[in-house]
Write a structure and sequence with these properties.
667 residues; alpha/beta; Substrate Binding Domain Of Dnak, Chain:A, Domain 2; Rossmann fold; binds Broken Fe4S4 cluster
């Protein structure tokens, strides 16, 4: 494979050339050597019992059955359901750990943690029907934590946050038996149902996948987002930089990687500690430079403006620079190969989760009861390693980004503290300034050219007045190419540009990490409640896209968006390509009953055309004016005085934005 086919990112390409020159293997090389099993690739290998594995091959594979008689459709459906259960387990276990951290914080047992966003705590308490009057912050936080924790073990009834969905959606879930009970219960049940000799009806198995996925989106992930906001602050726009060029030549470079914000937030604190900074200077470093990879990066990027060294496929490449003193990893998306990569350099690989060990790494276990002490120990270890740095190359590529568009900020920017609402966004869609909204999320996958599909699609979407909201590694890809700056509004269509200009926002809004996809669900629910468009998430002119995915978690996200009423498109080869029946259920039958769907398309053109078709059809069903580029009602949107002053002062337009404490916004 040519270098150009591996990545469109010049920083990645430079590091790949270095890796080649130095004989270091990366996932970009291993993917060429590892041909995927064509049977498993399209979902037709069953390994759930030990009579097999049964593999459906040949011309009549769809008519074949396994040794037990399982059809190709049953096998493909079971595969999907198990991936969804695993993905939901990952996000939900992350949420559970945060709930226990909140509990320990409320009880005063988590040294270094505090309730940072009391307003968010009160908001969550209200949603959970927890009394707040006359009670201390800690008492409320303890109840919030315990209510959250009870969602994992709940055997009957429904998840607490189901009540946040539009009423119509809740009714639909009830009608089809899709309302999730407890998080653990649904995941366990899906594992049971998909074992040999249990559920043998593809539709029923896929219903179980839908119900289980909601324990992620409306359960563990949504709780993870809310509790992270309570403990570490709700994001609001902040500027930072993205890509491998954020590494510094004269400072101790520490990278945090994985997903959980608990330790990384403490590492941020430790790296700013004057004593620790002084210690770094004794080792010849000018300072401590903290940056991240994957979603741990996104957690500290959107809250603290800590730079990101890149997305999933940048993890090995960052080490290959030779300039990283320590990479601290927690859970999910951490390649086992890192242990091999660091063996070529001075870099220390430090595992920190009780659940995630890597042979060859140094293990320093995280414990929320003494988090800040552990963080300081790790940072000191990185500092001690600084004098060991040898030859290094830092790619000179970094881009400015504006990130941190939480639900709360999006609401605020449409009217300020007192008039915050989703009306302006709904109106912009109604009058055709904005054709629709696309959520672009998910990973990199070395089987696809890194960042290419995401970047090509986002360019076309914004040109056509489609507002893009994003999370995870896709959002970082957009950051690397400048799409997360207000200046990029110049590349947007006339309607979207006008909206972006009025507020000073980028045409692509970075909403956070993978668990923060739950923010997209609550924004969609608020848009439904606002009125004027659909009164449900289903029927909105919106589409979810996961173009370069690789993880089970991405599939769980896709399925919970489908369950919530959003048509979803995944890029790359179809993982259910071997069963036309399962493809039909997930695309057509789900759409008929839920107005959400999931399908796989393998080219950029196919994804773009299908997205526009889905949005246009939704607009037609809502009887909205047909979208025509540049043709919308021309009356100017009114800004209030505070917003006008900002714009006149050059702070609200390109390069500027308003904070909730700086007066009202307006579209
Ligand atoms: S980190 S799940 S590679 S988006 Fe959330 Fe990135 Fe995908 Fe991991």
């Amino acid at each position: 494979m040519e270098l150009a086919d591996k990545s469109i990112d010049p920083a990645s390409r430079q590091m790949l050339e270095k890796a080649k020159a130095e004989g270091i293997s990366t996932s970009f090389d291993r993917v060429e050597a590892m041909k995927p099993c064509p049977i498993g690739r399209e979902g037709l290998c069953c390994k759930h019992c030990f009579m097999g594995p049964c593999r459906m091959v040949g011309k009549n594979k769809e008519e074949m059955v396994g040794i037990c008689g399982a059809t190709a459709a049953t096998i493909a459906a079971r595969g999907v359901a198990r991936w969804v259960a695993a993905g939901s387990a990952a996000h939900s276990d992350h949420g559970r750990d945060l709930a226990f951290t909140l509990l320990a914080t409320a009880k005063g047992e988590a040294h270094g943690f505090k309730i940072k966003d009391v307003n968010k705590l009160l908001k969550v308490a209200k949603i959970m029907d927890i009394a707040v009057d006359g009670r201390t912050t800690e008492q409320v936080a303890e109840d919030v934590a315990n209510t959250a924790i009870s969602d994992w073990g709940r055997q009957n009834g429904e998840l607490t946050y189901i009540r946040r969905a539009p009423k119509k959606r809740q009714e639909l879930w009830k009608k089809y038996g899709l309302t999730p009970r407890g998080i653990d219960r649904e995941i366990v049940e899906t594992m049971h149902r998909t074992g040999m000799g249990v559920d043998q009806d593809p539709e029923s198995i896929l219903n179980s996948a839908l119900r289980t996925s909601m324990t992620d989106g409306w359960g563990g992930a949504m709780l993870a987002t809310d509790i992270s906001d309570i403990l570490f602050g709700t994001p609001e726009p902040v500027k930072a930089k993205v890509n491998l060029g954020v590494l510094k030549s004269d400072e101790v470079n520490i990278l945090v990687h994985g997903h959980e914000p608990t330790l990384s937030m403490m590492i941020v604190e430790a790296s700013e500690d004057p004593e620790i900074l002084a210690y770094a200077k004794t080792k010849g470093a000018k300072g401590i430079n903290l940056a991240g990879i994957c979603c741990t990066a996104n957690e500290i990027l959107v809250r603290q403006g800590i730079s990101s060294a890149g997305n999933f496929l940048n993890q090995e490449l960052a080490i290959i620079s030779g300039a990283v003193e320590a990479m601290i990893v927690d859970v999910q998306c951490v390649m086992e190969a890192l242990a091999q990569t660091v063996s070529h350099f001075h870099t220390k690989l430090i595992t920190t989760s009780i659940k995630a060990h890597i042979p060859g790494a140094t293990h320093i276990e995280f414990d929320e009861h003494r988090a800040i002490d552990i963080a300081k120990e790790i940072v000191k270890m990185a500092i001690d390693n600084y004098p060991n740095r040898k030859a290094y190359t830092i790619p000179d590529y970094r881009n400015d980004v504006m990130v941190g568009f939480s639900h709360e900020y999006i609401e605020y920017m449409q009217g300020g503290h007192y008039r915050g609402s989703f009306r302006p966004l709904n109106d912009a869609i109604i009058d055709g300034r904005i054709m629709g909204v696309v959520g672009m999320v998910g990973c990199n996958n070395p089987r696809l050219t890194q960042d290419q599909m995401n970047i090509n699609l986002v360019k076309r979407f914004i040109e056509n007045d489609i507002l893009v909201v994003s999370t995870g590694c896709a959002a970082v890809a957009f950051g690397k190419r400048g799409y997360l700056t207000p200046e990029m509004m110049a590349a947007a269509g006339p309607g979207l540009r006008e909206v972006c200009e009025a507020i000073g926002i980028p045409p692509v809004l970075h909403m956070g990490s993978c668990v923060d996809n739950s923010r997209i669900l609550t924004v969609l629910s608020a848009m439904a409640e606002e009125g004027g468009l659909s009164d449900d998430i289903g029927g909105m002119p919106g589409v979810g896209i996961c173009a370069e995915w690789m993880h089970e978690k991405a599939l769980a996200i896709g399925v919970y968006f489908a369950a919530s009423g959003v048509p979803v498109i995944f890029g790359g080869d179809s993982i259910i390509g071997g069963s036309s029946k399962v493809q039909k259920i997930m695309r057509d039958d789900w759409f008929d009953k839920l107005q959400g769907s999931l399908e796989f398309l393998d080219t950029e053109d196919a994804i773009f055309d299908r997205t526009v078709d889905l949005i246009s059809a939704a607009r037609e069903r809502l009887k909205l004016k047909k979208y025509e580029k540049g043709k919308f009602a021309v009356e100017k949107v009114l800004l209030d005085m505070a917003a006008r002053r900002k714009l006149e002062a050059g702070q609200g337009g390109a390069g500027g934005f308003m904070k909730p404490h700086e007066g009202a916004g307006g579209l």
